[in-house]
Design a protein that fits this description.
alpha+beta, four-stranded mixed β-sheet, three-stranded antiparallel β-sheet, 3 helices, globular
Length: about 170
């Protein structure tokens, strides 16, 4: 989140990024999440911004803490390409979560570039709310899909019992 004249950048495959900004106060920010909704296990102790709910709450909370009223906020939604080899359609679920969350909280969506089978690189200017999007070549799409599949596997394998200690001979 920033008021400065700078760019925030990210690359998206099935992930979604939501640009939230207040045009009159010239402040905004960008989140980027991997999975829709809350944490994978609905564990209240898991407040990672890799989940849509936490990512949205953190960004909007930071803007409110900076003096922006919720009714001043506008949003733009990007990503959610169905690029993973699995059949989960996580990209579509990510987009549906973002649009539903924003509607439920009365935040208008002014622009979107979502879904399809394309990865995206985007740059946001937080002070203006401008977002520049480039659709990436197929080779970059494949590399991004491989990385996202690895990330999803790591999240799903996360140990619910804490760390183990290895005792060797």
């Amino acid at each position: 989140m920033s008021r400065e004249d700078l760019y925030i950048a990210t690359v998206l495959g099935s992930c979604v990024a939501v640009a939230v900004y207040a045009p009159v106060k010239r402040i905004g920010g960008l989140n980027h999440y991997l999975l829709p909704g809350g944490s994978y296990r609905n564990d209240p102790g898991e407040n990672s911004s890799r989940y849509g709910l936490q990512a949205m709450e953190l960004l909007i909370g930071a803007l409110v803490d900076a003096g922006v009223s919720r009714h001043e906020l506008r949003a733009k939604v990007f990503g959610g390409g169905n690029v993973l080899t699995s059949r989960s359609m996580v990209g579509t679920a990510n987009v549906e979560f973002a649009l539903s969350y924003l509607a439920d909280h009365g935040i208008p969506v002014t622009d979107r570039d979502v879904e399809g089978e394309v990865a995206r690189k985007l740059f946001m200017q937080p002070a203006t709310g401008r977002v520049y999007v480039k659709h990436l070549e197929q080779s970059l799409l494949e590399r991004n899909a491989i990385q996202e599949e690895r990330d999803l596997q790591k999240i799903r394998k996360k140990d619910v019992y804490g760390d183990f200690i290895l005792f060797e001979n």
